Amino acid sequence: MVIAPHGGPWARDSYGFNPLHQWLANRGYAVLSVNYRGSTGFGRAFLNAGNREWGGRMQEDLQDAVQWAISNGVAAPERIAIIGAGYGGYAALSGLAFTPDQFRCAASYGAPLHLMTMLDSAPSSAAALRDGLYLRVGDPRTSEGRQLLRVRSPIAQASQIERPLLLAFGARDPNVSRAEHDQFAFNVRARRAGLIYMIYPNEGAQLARPQNRLSYLAVLEHFLGDCLGGRAEAAGAAFEGAQFNVYDGAASVPGLSAFARRASVAAPAPAPSATPVQAFGESPADSAPASPD
């Protein structure tokens, strides 16, 4: 089974056709979508129940859904993956980092790795936006808030990851830190857990170019096939015209080695927690105004 948390997080999954879900079902996976607390469209109380629960009760909602799927025979406990982009990518990384035995593998695109960094990126001129993020995510103006943001940041728990990970982001996303991703990849690489690390130099928070999107999905289906045993088509022409670099795991997918680049052998300097470098940002059409994804 694949659990695919939606981005936002102040958005929602709705009933109806979803091309990602249908594609994964075609590859042989059950697909689970969860409107965890903090999702929109279910009333103010449900939205506010997600306040300052990134990596906390919002993550527990995903875990509860997984347990439901196991109890009802939908999923085998040892064959569950978690994938996502934006906040969904954050949830995927949190799943591997905070509950290392829960998921067999994870895939993340464009996730915020350090919540302090994400909040620091909000423009100082937009007081309402910053206040909204402080309410929803955490308040870095207090010592308790800073501590909460640190412990809920996947980059602080990267050394706990023991399962395979597909990690990717777009270099033109102004709110994503290359240094943090390099640091995260370095820590996972040291664990020898299994890593594919990709960077799309001409993409931002979303994979807008069709050929780049196709290339990522080709890598993802091979990654999931190795992890869960589902069906995967030969990459074929999926990489033609795509622009990306691979710093880890190029040998894991036929044809991917043509995009291989040498990864840094030394650990990059970590971003200071008090003065983060960059943050994550994306605004889906169905998100609330103060959404970081």
| Rg for CA atoms | 18 Å
State the total count of DSSP E strands: 7
> Biggest sheet: strands, sense, closure?
7 strands, mixed
CATH level-two architecture? 3-Layer(aba) Sandwich
The count of helical stretches stands at 9
Shape: globular
User: CATH topology, which one?
Assistant: Rossmann fold
Tally of separate domains: 1
| Superfamily (CATH H level) name | Alpha/Beta hydrolase fold, catalytic domain
Low-confidence stretches: 271-291
In round numbers, the mean pLDDT is: 89
Derived from helix and strand composition plus strand pairing, the structural class reads alpha/beta
Helix content: 25-40%
Class in CATH? Answer: Alpha Beta
Distance between the termini: 25 Å
Give the ordered list of helices and strands. Answer: EHEHHEHEHHHEHEHE
Going across the biggest sheet, name each strand in turn. Answer: 2-1-3-4-5-6-7
Strand content: 5-15%
